[in-house]
């Protein structure tokens, strides 16, 4: 009997993924049927994006695993109709894209690029930026994306502090964890990068209390998820100068509503959830490897801990 693989994602993705998945499953030596429409009780694996509309897995009685195309799984990890393993996306292309985006925005803050680009009024103030080695950057979240970003910033000589739930050891990165670690990290950092997942434990992790720990004028870069930041607290901190500037890629409501204060705030840069995306060529390989593993009885890669939500 063939392995039935349902592709349940935005329809526009299918033409790009179909040949890649077809090739990967063939290379894995599997007898398979790959389609965007398969009767629920015959599906073995779902290649899944939350915006596909599939939310109720009750009738997927033969399902072996759901393989997410997205790294962030907050909208599915709590789904009680899903009782089989859920794997999230860890994709080399996604990681590379995020690393480039983070490094670009850190350098933009570090070098004061916005200030110099808009300096058209004859001002000639020779205030060269410090070296990266004199700048502390904190990366909250040291998973696939946070660790790669922290390593890239370290390679540029930034003093990098990383913070995670469990203890880490990453060469060149000062790794902290737990509530005390967060206090220590924030109190000495000029640029904060948020690469945490959206879980009950990380909601509003940047709030009035934690924002007040930062040195005055610190800058925030959020490519993680919108709920990581208490928006009212951030706006207050921006208005008081406690936070100098924020670059926000993700929001509680997306697209960011036109009336939202972030759009008009002079010290906020809004980007439309483009920090990075899953790349079909590399992510299809990850999906096919997981299906191969499932069929061989081997453990899946990148399993979500449903209790922790990531
Ligand atoms: P991972 O699951 O690999 O890493 C998550 C990290 O966060 C881990 O280091 C984990 O700690 C840490 N963490 C989780 N909970 C806590 C907590 N309560 N306290 C402290 N640390 C915690 O995720 P990725 O790196 O792959 O992705 C991170 C997020 O980036 C995604 O969840 C998604 O929301 C976002 N994203 C955004 C994109 C964009 O375009 N804007 C694109 C892709 C992803 P530990 O290592 O100890 O478990």
What does this structure look like?
The structure is a single chain. This protein has 310 residues and is of the alpha/beta class. It folds into two domains: 108 residues, 3-Layer(aba) Sandwich (Rossmann fold), CATH 3.40.50; 179 residues, NAD(P)-binding Rossmann-like Domain (Rossmann fold, 3-Layer(aba) Sandwich). It contains nine helices and twelve strands. Strands 8-7-6-9-10-11-12 form a seven-stranded parallel beta sheet, sandwiched between helices. Strands 2-1-3-4-5 form a five-stranded parallel beta sheet, covered by helices on one side. The chain is elongated. The structure holds NADPH dihydro-nicotinamide-adenine-dinucleotide phosphate. The site of NADPH dihydro-nicotinamide-adenine-dinucleotide phosphate has 29 residues, from α4. NADPH dihydro-nicotinamide-adenine-dinucleotide phosphate binds next to α4.
List strands and helices in order, with pairings.
Blueprint: E1 3-8, H1 14-27, E2 32-35, E3 45-48, E4 65-68, E5 86-87, H2 92-111, H3 113-117, E6 136-140, H4 144-155, E7 159-164, E8 173-177, H5 178-187, E9 191-194, H6 208-211, E10 218-222, H7 231-240, E11 243-248, H8 261-264, E12 268-270, H9 280-296
Parallel strand pairs: 1-2, 1-3, 3-4, 4-5, 6-7, 6-9, 7-8, 9-10, 10-11, 11-12
Bound molecules: NADPH dihydro-nicotinamide-adenine-dinucleotide phosphate.
Question: Could you write a compact summary of the structure shown?
Answer:
The protein has 310 residues and is α/β, with parallel strands linked by helices. It is built from 9 helices and 12 strands. It folds into 2 domains: 108 residues, NAD(P)-binding Rossmann-like Domain (Rossmann fold, 3-Layer(aba) Sandwich); 179 residues, Rossmann fold (3-Layer(aba) Sandwich), CATH 3.40.50.
């Amino acid at each position: 009997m063939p392995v039935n693989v349902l592709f349940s994602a935005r329809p526009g993705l299918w033409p790009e993924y179909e040949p890649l998945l077809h090739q990967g499953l063939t290379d894995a030596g599997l007898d398979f049927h790959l389609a965007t429409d398969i009767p629920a009780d015959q599906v073995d694996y779902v290649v899944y994006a939350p915006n596909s509309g599939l939310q109720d897995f009750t009738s997927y009685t033969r399902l072996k695993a759901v393989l997410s195309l997205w790294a962030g799984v907050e909208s599915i990890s709590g789904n009680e109709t899903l009782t089989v393993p859920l794997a999230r996306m860890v994709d080399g292309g996604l990681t590379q894209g995020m690393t480039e985006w983070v490094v670009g925005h850190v350098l933009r803050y570090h070098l004061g690029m916005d200030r110099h680009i808009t300096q058209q009024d004859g001002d000639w103030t020779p205030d060269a930026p410090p070296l990266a080695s004199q700048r502390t950057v904190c990366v909250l979240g040291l998973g696939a994306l946070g660790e790669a970003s922290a390593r890239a910033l370290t390679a540029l000589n930034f003093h990098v502090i990383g913070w995670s739930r469990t203890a880490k050891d990453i060469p060149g990165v000062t790794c902290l964890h737990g509530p005390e670690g967060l206090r220590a990290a924030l109190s000495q950092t000029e640029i904060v990068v948020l690469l945490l997942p959206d879980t009950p434990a990380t909601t509003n992790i940047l709030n009035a209390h934690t924002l007040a720990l930062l040195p005055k004028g610190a800058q925030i870069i959020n490519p993680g998820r919108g709920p990581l930041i208490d928006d009212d607290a951030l706006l207050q901190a921006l208005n008081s100068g406690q936070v100098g500037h924020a670059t926000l890629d993700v929001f509680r409501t997306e697209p960011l509503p036109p009336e939202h204060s972030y759009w008009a705030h002079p010290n906020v840069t809004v980007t439309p959830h483009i920090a990075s995306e899953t790349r079909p060529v590399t992510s299809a390989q990850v999906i096919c490897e997981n299906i191969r593993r499932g069929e061989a009885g081997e453990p899946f890669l990148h399993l979500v801990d449903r209790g922790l939500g990531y």
